[in-house]
TrEMBL record:
Biological classification of the source: Eukaryota, Fungi, Dikarya, Basidiomycota, Agaricomycotina
Function: Required for the first step of diphthamide biosynthesis, a post-translational modification of histidine which occurs in elongation factor 2. DPH1 and DPH2 transfer a 3-amino-3-carboxypropyl (ACP) group from S-adenosyl-L-methionine (SAM) to a histidine residue, the reaction is assisted by a reduction system comprising DPH3 and a NADH-dependent reductase, predominantly CBR1. Facilitates the reduction of the catalytic iron-sulfur cluster found in the DPH1 subunit.
Family: Belongs to the DPH1/DPH2 family. DPH2 subfamily.
Subunit structure: Component of the 2-(3-amino-3-carboxypropyl)histidine synthase complex composed of DPH1, DPH2, DPH3 and a NADH-dependent reductase, predominantly CBR1.
Pathway info: Protein modification; peptidyl-diphthamide biosynthesis
Sorted UniProt keywords: Cytoplasm, Iron, Iron-sulfur, Metal-binding
GO cellular component terms attached to this protein's record: cytoplasm
GO terms of molecular function: 2-(3-amino-3-carboxypropyl)histidine synthase activity; iron-sulfur cluster binding; metal ion binding
PANTHER family for this protein: 2-(3-AMINO-3-CARBOXYPROPYL)HISTIDINE SYNTHASE SUBUNIT 2 (PTHR10762:SF2), DIPHTHAMIDE BIOSYNTHESIS PROTEIN (PTHR10762)
GO biological process, one term: protein histidyl modification to diphthamide
Protein name as it appears in the record: 2-(3-amino-3-carboxypropyl)histidine synthase subunit 2
Region (Disordered): 204-226
Length: 507
């Protein structure tokens, strides 16, 4: 049993584990009135009654768990009899995602998500969002952002100003927008897309592009998808501190100038200078993915509407490129978990946009996003700097048509014996090719071969199977005909402090 300790942890770890919580993310001590206002108790109760939800799950991140009991009691007091509430904690993946799987364990028909949210579309349950209300000085925010614009000496002619903010400042967005519009409307048009306070499930095959954007100066509205897809003369004004949300904004809008205001420090600055460094680090990960032949598709979410179609898409893309792929679900990522899969040379993480970018310095293998994988598998080594983290945008184009199909055909026409130059090692390498061109990637039987006369089987062209044979520890060996089957016996019943048949615990 000693060999198994590397693959599991004791139950004590769940109690002794230390949770790192930033003090900036935790609201201070709140009075009863402040809890009512900060967590929108009245609005939440109204939405539950309006939707006639019988069983509602309340999802809390670790830093807000201490407020779960007073929130539960105040909500319960406002709901009509017969409505049940359940508190969810310790989410399976990132706390910014809606944990629909945990909610299904209590057969919930709606969820209330507290704290920071990535706002990805869900596929099962309606969600009521309660972001909290972090303090921000609207007057100072508008003033500092304008000062940052003046310091950058950027001409506003022909440009559009776009206001973005962290979800915790949504309650002050209208005030900030009003002050900015009053000062800048004569120079440039403003656009703002309000963050919804509730979302409803969508079909995985339903496109969610084209969110409504409010034009604050009477000009035509423009969708977020247009802002993301087409480089325009936009200047983004972002309210919020350094976070994954800001990092994703800089990555996906590298063509835009981004000015940020941090309400905690009261400072504003031009952030666009960070974009090149972020893209350079991701470009290195792309080059490492080009050198890999065996990939692991990591399931990093179970709540985003399009995650299953994206996994199927990635499998097809890797199969067309003659790469071997394995689909792995490990929950929250850590280096120890992924180190168990030494045969995998690169991981592809399918997660919400805020959890997709992993700085893999401490990980044994590189971790790339689905978009980075598609870049790495292209025949020409080119990247325009455009970056996509949204599942829907990766699946909009049919991979069998147009540009993707052309790139795939170019890849297949390459001479398999021709060496490929690696920018990571500075040497030429011969890429391995798994699977036949005319083989059905969905036929699992074609990959099995007889390994020896003992009746065991192995996977043909499987890097994992070859690596398994070289390991000193391979798990339990099959001993067919040597070990008699064990007799089934009735197990103990009761609770841990004293089982029903444990005579030593009495007295």
């Amino acid at each position: 049993m000693a060999e198994n300790t590397a693959f599991s942890t004791s139950g004590e770890e769940a109690i002794t584990r230390t949770i790192d919580i930033s003090q900036d993310e935790v609201p201070g001590e709140l009075s009863a009135e402040e809890i009512e206002n900060y967590y929108d108790i009245e609005r939440t109760a109204v939405e539950i009654e309006k939707g006639n939800y019988k069983r509602t799950a309340l999802q809390f991140p670790d830093e807000l768990l201490r407020h779960s009991v007073p929130i539960f009691r105040r909500l319960k007091a406002r709901l009509s009899p017969g409505r049940e509430l359940y508190v969810l904690a310790d989410t399976s993946y990132g706390s910014c995602c809606v944990d629909e799987v945990a909610a299904q364990h209590v057969d919930a028909d709606a969820m209330v998500h507290y704290g920071h949210a990535c706002m990805t579309k869900t596929s099962r349950l309606p969600v009521i969002y309660v972001f909290g209300k972090k303090p921000v000085d609207s007057e100072d925010c508008a003033s500092k952002l304008l000062q940052s614009l003046d310091a950058s000496s950027t001409s506003l002619e022909g440009k559009t100003l776009v206001l973005r903010h962290d979800v915790a400042y949504a309650h002050r967005a209208d005030q900030i927008l009003e002050k900015l519009r009053a000062a800048m409307s004569i120079y440039a048009p403003f656009e703002y897309s309000p963050i919804p306070l509730m979302s409803f499930p969508v079909s995985p095959n339903t496109s969610t592009q084209g969110e409504t954007t409010v034009a604050t100066n009477g000009h035509d509205t423009t969708s977020d998808s247009q802002l993301d897809d087409a480089p325009r003369n936009d200047i983004i004004l972002y309210v919020g501190g350094e976070s994954l949300s800001l990092t994703n904004l800089l990555m996906t809008h590298a063509h835009c100038e981004v000015h940020t205001y941090d309400p905690k420090t009261g400072t504003a600055r031009l952030e666009s200078g960070r974009t090149n460094k972020l893209l350079m680090r991701r470009y290195v990960a792309v080059q490492k993915a080009r050198d890999a032949d065996v990939f692991g598709i990591l399931v990093g979410t179970l709540g985003v509407a399009a995650y299953l179609p994206l996994i199927s898409h990635l499998r097809k893309v890797l199969s067309r490129a003659h790469k071997k792929s394995f689909t792995i679900s490990v929950g929250k990522l850590n280096p120890a978990k992924l180190a168990n899969f030494l045969e995998i040379e690169c991981f592809v993480l399918v997660a919400c946009p805020e959890n997709s970018l992993i700085e893999a310095k401490e990980f044994l293998r590189p971790i790339v996003t689905p978009y980075e994988l598609e870049i790495a598998l292209r025949a020409p080594q080119s990247w325009t700097g455009r970056y996509v983290l949204d599942f829907e945008k990766l699946l909009v184009a049919d991979p069998n048509n147009s540009e993707d199909a052309a790139e795939g055909s170019d890849r297949e026409e390459e001479d398999p014996e021709q060496p490929v130059f690696s920018l990571v090692t500075g040497k030429y390498r011969h890429a391995k090719r798994y699977g036949e061109t005319n083989a059905d990637p969905n036929d699992p039987g074609s990959a099995l071969i007889l390994r020896n006369q003992d009746g065991t089987v192995a996977l043909a062209d499987s890097a994992a199977g070859a690596f398994l044979q070289a390991r000193t520890y391979r798990g339990l060996e099959v001993r067919i005909g040597q070990d008699a089957p064990a007799v089934l016996e009735q197990g103990r019943s009761g609770i841990a402090r004293g089982y029903a048949d444990d005579h030593s615990s009495g007295g």
